[in-house]
């Protein structure tokens, strides 16, 4: 997903109302609408990250221009430029695709290009890890180009936005982009580099270009390099840029990656849509001709042959894995607002889960018994659990805050936290929670627990034990009490709850030391009980 | 001796009773009020004004008012400044002395000082008030803040002549058994103190809201399901055909578990199907074309989407027609503010049957919005989820609130259903339940859904 702004005047071939209607229908959610239109695109459509891409899709949607765009149909002229690939590069950043573009660049184009490049890097390019793009002014370069791996100290050049030459290590350590993206290549002995026949450096992919080839308004001989870890993704990105340049009036020429052939590869992919299957899945009844028409509006080529619709898909689209992806194109081309939502008629018997039925019984009996229900977060802190002497819980590797860095394994500490925040409220207070907890003991376990807490000047073991007994009847289990020593409760004022001989919970009068640590100045009694063991996951020993 | 014995047919003041019985006045007052309720005594009230000197009044009584002190130190023929200097009055007192010397015409300040007459009204009034409890100059003292008056309530009490009966405060089993209740008079309750605040029990409003949604869904034939809080990436992501380099699998979109870091995937055939679907594709799909890692898939995380539960349900095996749902907590790293939290509920579900299609999916969504959000109209837009195709997001027009984004839905990709062993199309939908809850409960801050404030939980909801 990416959010960016387009100047409305660039889509001036449509009225405001058409834009408001059309944009959300081509997967561009409108975030704000004014002279600047802010849109949010979906992550399956990198081709919508440029104004040309959006324009292309809108023209299709409104039937102004349909079918597969021009780049796919052309026979591109060969530029004669060659890129030689060094075999050592295969272990580092194996793919490169390139093109030459003849187009005079204006200042406006330059701003636009920088935006598209950055958006492609961040989303489709996985922050340059998978793909990175270099667009160069080729006028000072002497092809052929060499894409190779070099020792970081062995090469120096002046990177973009810097004054003097640096070697590759210095670039990674000292430049802003080097610090940001250096991690991608740092672990290798050698770094990827793109140079011309006279060893002038075009770029250190995926980090930074050299100053030598900086694009300026007026540049007209462009060289694009795209390097990455996935050929299809690199080629699709090159197709996106080439199609955009073509829409801007540029001429695209191919570049030969020696041993692999001319790039960009523009031959459309072919996929067959079976009309009867598509109609069945969508619940509509289109003829082959209608279906082909709607697919063309999605900027595909579609030829109907009875039930089979042969589609040709431009290479800038990366989201076609299966014919079902054509079904979605058909649905969007047809118009989601033209579907008639069909009222549900499939009969099945519904029902609550046993977990919910039990939870409801607990909520009903304890609230009827005068307890106020609390819903706390499952995420909590080690400190909080520690105050209640709970030491076993599951920790998160990458918490966003100390306060939410572990999963609760018991509910009572959270009820005590609740009590600590309500010391201004009149007493007695009775609160409870019934909810999921998680723990780890040989297996990872999710359980349903219930805890109840009474804060009152006369809070006693007898009182909480009688509430527990009411609770046990509602839940439907028989138990025995057994003496227990538990530091959290006063000595001689704590009982273990046993069900079928197994300890499942505890009732007692809280140790004033615990109350003190929560800043609660009122005697308290409580129970905690494991109602159900819900899920367990085995782990590697 | 009981209090009643000190009370005769003549009016007696409560303060006198207090002295006689050596009992605090407040205690006597409440006792006689009780006797009055039982009609054994009658009461009358009177109010008297009592005047006392203030601190300043008491001081002047002792050392004289500032005007008197000035007069005593002043000599005829000197300038005012000199006289004031000599008088050792404070700055405040100097002003007072000048003001009242003029008022009572004791000194002429016009050129040099000339003493006129010893007319010290305030000093005399203070003395009089102290001695007699009264002075005709009271208004002057009050105006100067040298005395203050307050009303004193006096209660007088006398016997009514009625006989004292046995007054009971509580009907006892004993009284019923012996029949004594027939002779008993029950003490009347004081309406002002009758209602003592009691904390009632209450179910949490957000959980109640979620429960109402569950009931709507079961009435539409959906069966409720659950899953574990700690998931394996496999169920949360791989089983949903999300490639292992998919951006939403990165660290900033998932909470990873520190220990244990890996779980065990047990179903070897399932693992092979998932591996194949990811690497080479199944059922006419190209797959993602990368090397799938079982180790990555067995990493432990906190469930980041409710769809993980649907994946588990499909793996367990569906018996079409099947309609399942879950309302479950999910966890995602995010900012924490009034609009975002890192733990929230998701409501999601599936409909699986040979007959289901996209038009029906839209029908279900519309029905949910009518039943759950009381929406009048629903709008659909194309969207993208890695595991559904076609995918939509839907907005509902909620009365009084306008168009609200409600959730996302789609049909599970054939890769998903095939690798999980399901042979029929499966509709999948999710509703943004927190947003709906905020609207429904009339609150703004998403963190209030999990409020720990008992007042808020008792009263606001």
How would you characterize the overall build of this protein?
The complex is a heterodimer of chains A (541) and B (461). By secondary structure, chain A is an alpha+beta fold. Chain A has 4 domains: 2-65, 2-Layer Sandwich (Phenylalanyl-tRNA Synthetase, Chain B, domain 1); 72-263, Phenylalanyl-trna Synthetase, Chain B, domain 3 (Phenylalanyl-tRNA Synthetase, Chain B, domain 3), CATH 3.50.40; 269-337, Phenylalanyl-tRNA Synthetase, Chain B, domain 1, CATH 3.30.56; 354-538, BirA Bifunctional Protein, domain 2 (2-Layer Sandwich). Chain B is of the alpha+beta class. Among the domains of chain B are: 168-193, no CATH class; 206-228 and 306-460, 2-Layer Sandwich (BirA Bifunctional Protein, domain 2). In chain B, 36% of the residues lie in helices and 21% in strands. In chain B, a hairpin with a 5-residue loop joins strand 3 (107-108) and strand 4 (114-115). The longest helix of chain B has 15 residues, at 205-219. In chain B, 39% of the residues are buried. The mean pLDDT of chain B is 89. At the A-B interface, helix 7, helix 9, helix 10, strand 19 and strand 22 of A face helix 10, strand 8, strand 11, helix 15 and strand 13 of B.
Count the domains of chain A: 4
Strand content of chain B: 15-25%
- Named CATH architecture of the largest domain in chain A: 3-Layer(bba) Sandwich
The chain-level mean pLDDT of chain A equals 95
* CATH H-tier superfamily of the largest domain in chain A: Phenylalanyl-trna Synthetase, Chain B, domain 3
* Residue-averaged pLDDT of chain B: 89
- How many strands, which pairing sense, and closed or not: the largest β-sheet of chain B? 7 strands, mixed
């Amino acid at each position: 997903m990416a959010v960016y702004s387009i100047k409305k005047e660039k889509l001036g071939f449509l009225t405001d109302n058409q834009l408001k209607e059309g944009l959300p229908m081509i997967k561009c959610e409108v975030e704000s609408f004014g002279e600047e239109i802010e849109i949010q695109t979906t992550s399956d459509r990198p081709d919508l990250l440029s104004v040309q891409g959006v324009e292309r899709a809108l023209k299709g949607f409104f039937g102004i221009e349909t079918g597969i765009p021009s780049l796919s149909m052309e026979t591109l002229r060969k530029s004669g430029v060659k890129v030689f690939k060094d075999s050592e590069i295969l272990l580092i950043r194996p793919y490169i695709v390139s093109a030459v573009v003849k187009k005079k660049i204006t200042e406006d184009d330059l701003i636009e290009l920088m935006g598209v490049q950055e958006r492609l890097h961040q989303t489709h390019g996985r922050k340059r890890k998978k793909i990175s793009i270099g667009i160069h002014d080729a006028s000072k370069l002497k092809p052929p180009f060499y894409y190779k791996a070099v020792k970081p100290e062995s090469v120096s050049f002046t990177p973009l936005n810097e004054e003097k030459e640096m070697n590759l290590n210095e670039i990674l350590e000292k430049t802003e982009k080097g610090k940001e993206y250096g991690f991608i290549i740092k672990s290798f002995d050698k770094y990827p580099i793109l140079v011309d026949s006279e060893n002038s450096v075009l770029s250190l992919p995926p980090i930074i270009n050299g100053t030598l080839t900086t694009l300026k308004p007026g540049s007209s001989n462009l060289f694009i390099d795209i390097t990455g870890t996935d050929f299809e993704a690199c080629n699709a990105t090159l197709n996106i840029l080439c199609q955009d340049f073509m829409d801007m009036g540029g001429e695209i020429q191919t570049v030969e990656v020696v041993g692999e052939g001319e790039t960009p590869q523009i031959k459309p992919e072919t996929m067959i849509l079976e009309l009867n299957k598509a109609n069945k899945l969508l619940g509509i009844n289109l003829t082959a001709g209608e279906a082909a028409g709607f697919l063309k509006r999605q900027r595909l080529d579609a030829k109907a042959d009875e039930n089979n619709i042969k589609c040709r898909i431009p290479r800038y689209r990366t989201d076609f894995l299966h014919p079902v992806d054509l079904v979605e194109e058909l649905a969007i081309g047809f118009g989601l607002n033209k579907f008639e939502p069909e009222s549900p008629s499939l009969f099945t018997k519904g029902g609550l889960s046993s977990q919910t039925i039990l939870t409801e019984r607990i909520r009903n009996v304890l609230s009827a018994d005068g307890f106020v229900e609390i819903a706390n977060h499952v995420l909590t802190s080690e400190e909080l659990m520690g105050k209640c002497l709970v030491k076993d819980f599951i920790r998160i590797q990458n918490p966003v805050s100390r306060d939410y860095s572990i999963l609760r394994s018991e509910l009572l500490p959270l009820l005590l936290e609740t009590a600590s925040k309500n010391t201004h409220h009149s007493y007695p207070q009775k609160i409870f929670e019934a909810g999921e907890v998680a723990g780890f003991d040989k297996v990872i376990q999710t359980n349903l627990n219930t805890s109840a807490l009474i804060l009152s000047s006369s809070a006693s073991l007898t009182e909480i034990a009688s509430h527990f007994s009411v609770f046990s009847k509602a839940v439907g289990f028989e138990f025995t009490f057994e003496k227990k020593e538990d530091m959290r409760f006063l000595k001689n004022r704590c009982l273990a709850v046993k069900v079928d001989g197994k300890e499942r919970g505890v009732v007692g009068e809280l140790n004033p030391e615990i109350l003190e640590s929560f800043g609660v100045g009122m005697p308290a009694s409580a129970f905690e009980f494991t109602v159900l063991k819900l899920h367990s996951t085995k782990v590697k020993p | 001796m009981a209090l009643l014995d000190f009370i005769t047919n003549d009016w007696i003041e409560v303060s006198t009773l207090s002295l006689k019985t050596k009992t605090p006045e407040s205690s006597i007052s409440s006792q006689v009020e009780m006797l009055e309720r039982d009609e054994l005594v009658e009461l009358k009230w009177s109010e008297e004004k009592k005047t006392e000197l203030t601190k300043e009044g008491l001081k002047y009584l002792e050392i004289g008012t500032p005007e008197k002190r000035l007069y005593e130190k002043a000599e005829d023929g000197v300038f005012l400044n000199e006289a004031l200097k000599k008088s050792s009055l404070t700055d405040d007192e100097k002003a007072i002395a000048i003001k009242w010397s003029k008022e009572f015409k004791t000194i002429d300040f016009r050129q040099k000082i000339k003493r006129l007459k010893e007319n010290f009204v305030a000093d005399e009034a203070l003395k009089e008030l102290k001695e007699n409890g009264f002075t005709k100059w009271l208004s002057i003292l009050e105006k100067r803040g040298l005395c203050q008056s307050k009303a004193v309530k006096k209660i007088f009490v006398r016997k009514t002549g009625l006989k004292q009966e046995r007054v009971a405060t509580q009907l006892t089993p004993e009284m019923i058994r012996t029949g004594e209740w027939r002779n008993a008079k029950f003490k009347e309750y004081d309406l002002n103190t009758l209602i003592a605040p009691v904390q009632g029990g209450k179910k949490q409003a957000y959980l109640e809201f979620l429960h109402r949604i569950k009931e709507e869904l079961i009435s539409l034939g959906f069966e409720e399901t659950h899953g574990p809080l700690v998931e394996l990436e496999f169920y949360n992501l791989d089983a949903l055909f999300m490639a292992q380099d998919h951006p939403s699998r990165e660290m900033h979109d998932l909470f990873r578990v520190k220990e244990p870091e890996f779980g065990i995937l047990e179903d070897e055939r399932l693992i092979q199907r998932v591996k194949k679907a990811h690497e080479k594709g199944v059922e006419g799909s190209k797959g993602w074309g990368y090397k799938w890692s079982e180790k990555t898939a067995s990493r432990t995380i906190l469930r980041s989407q409710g769809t993980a539960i649907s994946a588990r349900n499909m793996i367990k095996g569906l018996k079409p027609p099947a309609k399942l749902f879950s309302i479950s907590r999910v966890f995602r790293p995010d900012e924490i503010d009034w609009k975002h939290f890192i733990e929230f509920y998701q409501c999601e579900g599936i409909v699986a049957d040979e007959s289901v299609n996209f038009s029906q999916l839209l029908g279900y969504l519309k029905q949910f919005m009518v039943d759950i959000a009381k929406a009048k109209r629903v709008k659909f837009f194309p969207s993208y989820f890695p595991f559904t195709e076609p995918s939509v997001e839907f907005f509902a027009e909620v009365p009084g609130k306008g168009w609200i984004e409600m959730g996302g839905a789609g049909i599970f990709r054939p890769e998903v259903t095939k690798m999980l062993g399901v042979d029929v199309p499966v509709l999948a939908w999710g509703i943004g339940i927190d947003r709906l809850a905020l609207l429904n409960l009339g609150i703004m801050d998403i963190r209030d859904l999990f409020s720990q404030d008992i007042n808020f939980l008792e009263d606001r909801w």
